[in-house]
Every structure is written in structure tokens, then in C-alpha cells.
Amino acid sequence: xxxxxxxxxxxxxxxxxxxxxxxxxxxxxxxxxxxxxxxxxxxxxxxxxxxxxxxxxxxxxxxxxxxxxxxxxxxxxxxxxxxxxxxxxxxxxxxxxxxxxxxxxxxxxxxxxxx
Amino acid sequence: xxxxxxxxxxxxxxxxxxxxxxxxxxxxxxxxxxxxxxxxxxxxxxxxxxxxxxxxxxxxxxxxxxxxxxxxxxxxxxxxxxxxxxxxxxxxxxxxxxxxxxxxxxx
Lengths: 115, 107
Hints:
The structure holds two protein chains of two kinds. By secondary structure, chain A is mostly beta strands. Helices cover 0% and strands 52% of the residues of chain A. In chain A, strand 7 (64-68) and strand 8 (74-78) form a beta hairpin. By secondary structure, chain B is mainly beta.
């Protein structure tokens, strides 16, 4: 079966713009979680969605937001981009809610460069 | 402060060697994950543990809840095991990651 699909894979934006990233989970998976990876900070948890509701949230400013649709696909949005938002954004899907209760399957990531 | 500490940061081994990567954490957890990341970014979940020990092929993961410590062992290491290994823990509604161990296995 198809894995976790993230689009776009690469994108370049300028400071002040906004960006939307998409994540399609494995069929049947209802939880989608998002992560940011940078050379300086490593991997950091952004948020988790289950059944269209945000269940958990990491320590990121309100410029980072997300949503989940009824088909479990998820999007995350970053507004007013800053240079420090340049990162690899990864999503992962799992069967149930709670990254502590379920094995995660990761997508290949979306690499965002902010100029 | 880092909730999750890994050691070593970098590790070079000869093919066939037994490898151990350590992870210590300072928070209460519901589960611990071992992840593998190859160059290019893709992450694969190797294990999710809440107690005891799990084995998958040449990989073994153990966890000691009382000591807040986990180890990932690779037996008969192979060049294809070269990757970054990341320890992550679930604590309450948060998910904390270690900085990773970069493993290079030389033929």
C-alpha cells in the first residue's frame, strides 16, 4: 500500500510569505503528526491531529498552524515566514491518537528554504 | 536542558562489529521510539518500546524504565546500517527527540 505522501518535496519562499504543506497518510491511518528538523535544533514536534482535531501541540509560535480533513489528509501552514523557518518538515501517520501509543510511519519530508 | 540525551554522537565501526547506541531521558514517558534516518531525510521507525526488550532481525532495543535508559544494539553491522539513529520519547502531550547518533560502518 502507498506510504505517507508529502507535497511539495522542495520549495523556496521569501521572508514574510506564507506556505502550506500537505500530508496524505497511509490509508486507514487517522492520526497525522508534524515535525520540524533543522541542523541547529534537530527534530522538534509541531502538532498532532486525529479525527480533524488537534490533540497535541509542541512549543511553536502561532504562525505555525495545521488542520486535518475528513479523509485524514493534513495540511500545515506557516505564515509570515522567517529565515529560521528554513527546515525539513516531516509528517508521520499512525492508526490511533497519541504518538506514544502507535508506531509512526514517516513521509519523505518537505524541504523549505526561506530567502 | 535536553530531555533526551544520546551517546555517542558519532560512531565508526568495521563491518561485522557489534554496536551499541545509548539513550537517557529525564522525563516520565509513555513510550520510547528508535528512529533511523538515512541521508536525504527519510525516517523509518525501528522500534517503539514501553518496557523490556524488542528484536527485529539484527536490531535489538532494550529499555530500563527505572533507570530511564534505553539501548539500541546492532549485531553483525553492515555498511547499509550507516545512518543517523534517533531516540525519541513521549511524555504527556509532548514528544522529545535526541540529537541523534551518526553511524558509519566501514566495509
